[in-house]
Write a sequence for this structure.
């Protein structure tokens, strides 16, 4: 068994964890908190969603928002995009959307000649910061396939060349009520999303009253337009994310803990997880990919940094576990209809059963 | 005479004491009937009947007869009854029945004599003739217990003791059993409510176990401190019913107020544990404090 943590060995080979980042990381943290505060002006009652979005930004991951109709998914994404700054583009998923519609815009110009201009993805060039895919499950698998490459490699091929988007973050949302004329995201595409965040109607009565009666929330354009733009420098987010990953340590105990969580997710009955009405031995078809667990650690590091620590605690892992891992778990088809309830119980019980430290 | 058939014996009393010349002329006949003259014991009642035939014109002077009352120190005359009838040859026949009771306490069988009646007859012209009635002697016996005959069977032998009556106690037994059962039930309920044995199986006491483990391990250098901290973590897990992380402490202390007064050391323990297990590995809590915390938690757990 390794006697030092992976993080420790890595920092030994890299030299000391970048001391030059320390000051700037503190500034970045202040920036991140300011960013959260700015988004919070438009998004009330969803602080944990905003926190997870911030974590995803600094972990350089794409986010899929899921929730009922009208709970504010689009507003959250627009607010985040606005506060983040940088070029922002959106596209609505429809059943007849073709992959090329994302890359090209074809039209007849004033001279009556057909013209093909760069589409939504390419319009802003390689500086695109946020690409927002609305109602992603209405688009067909061909589109998902292109999106897959865009998310995974941050690059596409168009106009005879490769385009690279180093600062790109893809936000998508999906309503979970409607199942007609929708296409379930393929497992590979879902795995590319760092987080799948469930957005619920706020429970707090005061917040709900404010949402319904305050006219500020009735005009989303003005609400989002009122936010300061570019609280964070989107071009340096990648570097900041990398610095965070370097600076926040994971101890050997934590590494074992995460592996324990992973094992528990793959074989829940081995740690004594019991869910009513579920045969635990046949529940799980796939319990999280290595990429998924890597994303979990990445997100946990960012969360620890946001909390002002230089070490990852089990609490950090717990805070990001369900959003990062739940959509990467594949259940036996007979349990899929009850997926949400089962996964909530599973994630909860895994943390109740796996000892920490 | 108690229980005995009267043996009427007619005694023809002699008139030796009477004047032969006069009394014979007026008192024609005297006789006395008495019971058997033996076997008389203290307290026996017997009747002496005297028949006197008196020639007319003489009459028996009844006032000369003795009145009921003590006759001697041992003999009472209980009553005296006189019947007058006509006798043969124009005579008047008197039947005098005297009922006596003897109180003679004989020490041995002895003969006793009842004094004779004084019979006085008078004529209308004032002539008067006296005569004595018959005296009666009898053998009086001391009171002696009846000696049981060998072989038994006597009507007078002592009978065996009567079998004692044994009334049924079933009702009382049932009532006592019911009361006993109710008492046991009440005792059981009380024991259950107060957690006396055998209901003393309280929820497991993880901190008591942890305190022993910590006492064993804590001073054993850094590895010992780490395993002691792990023991304490497992106790927190068991007490919380799940894996307890540092961020959950507030909820845990709210749910288990018995531990709330140790909040500062608990928090510093979790902070030290974070540093030791997830941080740089430095141990910031001395083993003594760890030990004291484990003991305090164990005693708080006992009290809760």
């Amino acid at each position: 068994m390794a006697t030092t943590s992976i993080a420790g060995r890595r920092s030994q080979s890299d030299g000391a964890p970048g001391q030059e980042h320390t000051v700037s990381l503190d500034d970045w943290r202040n920036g991140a908190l300011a960013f959260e505060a700015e988004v919070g002006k438009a998004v009330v009652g969803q602080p944990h969603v905003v926190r997870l979005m911030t974590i995803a930004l600094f972990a350089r991951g794409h986010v899929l928002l899921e929730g009922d109709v009208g709970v504010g998914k689009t507003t959250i994404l627009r607010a985040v995009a606005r506060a983040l700054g940088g070029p922002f583009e959106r596209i609505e998923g429809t059943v007849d959307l073709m992959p090329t519609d994302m890359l090209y815009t074809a039209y007849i110009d004033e001279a009556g000649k057909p013209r093909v201009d760069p589409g939504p993805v390419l319009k802003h060039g390689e500086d695109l910061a946020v690409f927002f895919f609305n109602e992603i499950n209405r688009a067909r698998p061909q589109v998902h396939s292109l999106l897959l490459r865009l998310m995974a490699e941050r690059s596409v091929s168009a106009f005879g060349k490769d385009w690279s988007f180093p600062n790109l973050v893809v936000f998508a949302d999906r309503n979970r009520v409607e199942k007609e004329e929708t296409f379930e995201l393929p497992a590979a595409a879902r795995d590319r999303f760092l987080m799948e965040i469930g957005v619920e109607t706020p429970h707090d009565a005061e917040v709900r009253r404010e949402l319904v009666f305050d006219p500020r929330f009735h005009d989303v354009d003005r609400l989002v337009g009122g936010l300061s733009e570019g609280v964070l420098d989107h071009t340096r987010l990648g570097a900041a994310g990398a610095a965070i990953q370097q600076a926040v340590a994971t101890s050997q105990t934590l590494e074992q803990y995460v592996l324990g969580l992973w094992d528990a997710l793959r074989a829940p009955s081995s740690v004594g997880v019991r869910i009513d009405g579920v045969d635990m031995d046949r529940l799980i078809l796939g319990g999280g990919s290595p990429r998924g667990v890597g994303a979990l650690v990445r997100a946990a590091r960012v969360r620890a940094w946001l909390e002002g620590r230089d070490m990852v605690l089990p609490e950090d892992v717990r805070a990001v576990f369900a959003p990062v891992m739940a959509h990467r778990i594949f259940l036996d088809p007979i349990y899929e209809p009850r997926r949400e309830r089962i996964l909530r119980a599973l994630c909860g019980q895994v943390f109740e059963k796996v000892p920490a430290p | 005479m108690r229980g005995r058939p009267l043996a009427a014996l007619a005694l023809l009393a002699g008139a030796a004491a009477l004047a032969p010349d006069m009394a014979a002329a007026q008192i024609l006949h005297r006789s006395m009937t008495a019971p058997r003259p033996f076997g008389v014991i203290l307290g026996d009642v017997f009747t002496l009947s005297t028949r006197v035939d008196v020639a007319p014109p003489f009459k028996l002077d009844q006032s000369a007869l003795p009145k009921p009352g003590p006759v001697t120190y041992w003999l009472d005359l209980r009553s005296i009854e006189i019947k007058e009838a006509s006798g043969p040859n124009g005579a008047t026949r008197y039947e005098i029945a005297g009922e006596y009771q003897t109180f003679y306490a004989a020490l041995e069988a002895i003969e006793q004599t009842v004094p004779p009646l004084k019979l006085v007859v008078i004529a209308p012209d004032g002539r008067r003739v006296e005569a004595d009635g018959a005296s009666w002697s009898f053998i009086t016996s001391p009171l002696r217990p009846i000696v049981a005959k060998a072989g038994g069977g006597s009507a007078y032998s002592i009978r065996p003791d009567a079998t004692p009556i044994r009334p049924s106690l079933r009702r009382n037994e049932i009532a006592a059993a019911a009361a006993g059962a109710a008492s046991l039930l009440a005792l059981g309920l009380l024991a259950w409510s107060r957690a006396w044995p055998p209901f003393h199986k309280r929820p497991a006491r993880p901190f008591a176990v942890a305190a022993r483990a910590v006492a064993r391990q804590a001073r054993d250098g850094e590895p010992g401190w780490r395993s002691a901290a792990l023991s304490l973590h497992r106790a927190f897990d068991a007490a919380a019913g799940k894996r307890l992380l540092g961020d959950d402490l507030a909820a845990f202390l709210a749910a288990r107020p018995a531990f709330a007064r140790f909040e500062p050391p608990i928090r510093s323990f979790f902070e030290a544990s974070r540093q030791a297990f997830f941080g740089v590995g430095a141990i910031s809590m001395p083993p003594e404090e760890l030990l004291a915390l484990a003991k305090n938690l164990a005693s708080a757990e006992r009290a809760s």
